[in-house]
């Protein structure tokens, strides 16, 4: 077995909303994650418009990293971590997202965390927004549906870039930005649930609103990347996408094309926009088929380098081309020899 390269960043990952706890301590405001209850095998999680004392909200206590980060980071070092992916809770820095001045207690907390990582030889990899949009912005603007949030996000980025410029080199603008292509992304990623209270499984889906909100995230991400490169050239910054593969049920051409379209919109779409600076042809077709019309506001640059995707890499164009080659080969064989069985899927993604 070959050894890892000496500069390989071996480590692990957590998210602020998942493990910090202290949800209302030292000036922190409520995030969308703080309004989500627990779920179980028989009942789904809920998102609530206010805190219900009789319900359990996992983010409120979590594992109390906020008060125990030193011993936790020491354990990471004992495990051999050389990299720790974590995130900054937006509402620790700007409790409602709209304050003129940041919350110093929140800034000081993350400075202590990053310094502690450095003392243990651990490189922090920091996600700027990991499913913790300020809930005040959900209430006022319907989350990322409001273009106003682009500027608020830029302000937040500028503050943390300057504060941690000597402590953090690696940055991610958003966690799993392509989750916004799915109805579930309306809650944690986009926050387009103003006024809704109920199970996450029953959140009303409005694709027009959802993709408009995602467009605003593209703009915010691109502007953050551009600003970082211009002012902090030593930064390594990009976005992060999740990889969710779709496999055709059969080798029927209908199934193959259905799987291809699912892969395009789920896995290739958001990284294509950020790498190429424009919407790909298949996204424009999807919008037309689903009656989605985006308000672009002469946004100009959409491009923002996608350094991390599929839980940690680039858009994988080589693998994508191999996949498409295989797909087209199987389609030719299916047409030559007849469908290979199974029932074609008559659904649109």
Task: Write up what this structure looks like.
This protein is α/β, with parallel strands linked by helices. It has a domain at about 10-240: Glycosidases (TIM Barrel, Alpha-Beta Barrel), CATH 3.20.20. The chain contains 11 helices and 7 strands. It has helices at about 15-20, 60, 65-80, 90-95, 105-120, 135-140, 150-165, 205-230, 255-275, 280-290, 315-335, and strands at about 10-15, 45, 85, 125-130, 170-175, 200, 235-240. The strands form 2 sheets. The chain has a 5-stranded parallel beta sheet with strand order 1-3-4-5-7. Helix 3 (about 65-80) runs parallel beside helix 5, helix 7 runs parallel beside helix 8 (about 205-230) and helix 9 packs antiparallel against helix 11. Residues about 305-330 and about 340-349 have low confidence and may be disordered.
Question: What sort of overall outline do the alpha carbons produce when their principal axes are compared?
Answer: globular
The strand line-up of the biggest sheet is: 1-3-4-5-7
Q: What is the name of the CATH class of the domain at 11-240?
A: Alpha Beta
Low-confidence stretches: 307-328, 339-349
Report on the biggest sheet: 5 strands, parallel
What's the helix count?
A: 11
CATH architecture of the domain at 11-240: Alpha-Beta Barrel
Order of helices and strands: EHEHHEHHEHHEEHEHHH
The fourth-level CATH homologous superfamily of the domain at 11-240 is: Glycosidases
Per DSSP E runs of 2 or more residues, the count of β-strands stands at 7
Distance between the termini: 42 Å
Q: What would you report as the Rg, rounded to the nearest angstrom? A: 21 Å
Quaternary organisation: single chain
Under CATH, the topology of the domain at 11-240 is which?
TIM Barrel
Share of β-strand residues: 5-15%
Mean pLDDT, rounded to whole units?
89
Question: Which class do the helix and strand fractions yield?
Answer: alpha/beta
Fraction in helix:
40-55%
């Amino acid at each position: 077995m070959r050894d890892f390269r000496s500069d390989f960043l071996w480590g692990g990952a957590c998210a602020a909303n998942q493990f910090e706890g202290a949800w209302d301590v030292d000036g922190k405001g409520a995030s969308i994650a703080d309004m989500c209850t627990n779920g179980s095998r028989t009942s789904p999680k809920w998102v609530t418009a206010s805190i219900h004392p009789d319900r359990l909200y996992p983010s409120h206590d979590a594992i109390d990293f906020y008060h125990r980060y030193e011993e936790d980071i020491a354990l990471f070092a004992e495990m051999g971590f050389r990299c720790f992916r974590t995130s900054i809770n937006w509402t620790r820095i700007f409790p409602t997202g709209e304050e003129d001045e940041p919350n110093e207690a929140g800034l000081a907390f993350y400075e202590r965390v990053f310094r502690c990582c450095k003392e243990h030889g651990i490189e922090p990899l920091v996600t700027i927004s990991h499913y913790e949009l300020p809930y005040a912005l959900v209430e006022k603007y319907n989350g990322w549906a409001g273009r106003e949030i682009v500027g608020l996000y830029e302000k937040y980025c500028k503050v943390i870039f300057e504060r941690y410029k000597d402590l953090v080199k690696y940055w991610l603008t958003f966690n799993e930005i392509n989750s916004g292509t799915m109805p579930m992304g309306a809650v944690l990623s986009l926050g387009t649930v103003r006024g809704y209270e109920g199970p996450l499984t029953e959140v009303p889906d409005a694709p027009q609103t959802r993709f408009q909100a995602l467009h605003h995230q593209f703009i915010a991400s691109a502007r953050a990347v551009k600003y970082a490169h211009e002012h902090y050239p030593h930064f390594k910054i990009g976005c992060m996408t999740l990889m969710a593969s779709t496999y055709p049920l059969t080798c029927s051409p209908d199934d193959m094309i259905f799987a291809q379209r699912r892969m395009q919109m789920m896995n290739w779409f958001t990284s294509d926009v950020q790498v190429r600076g424009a919407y790909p042809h298949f996204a424009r077709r999807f919008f037309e088929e689903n009656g989605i019309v985006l308000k672009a506001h002469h946004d100009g640059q959409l491009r923002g380098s996608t350094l991390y995707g599929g839980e940690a890499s680039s858009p994988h164009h080589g693998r994508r081309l191999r996949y498409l080659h295989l797909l087209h080969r199987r389609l030719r064989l299916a047409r030559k020899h007849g469908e290979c069985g199974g029932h074609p899927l008559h659904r649109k993604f």
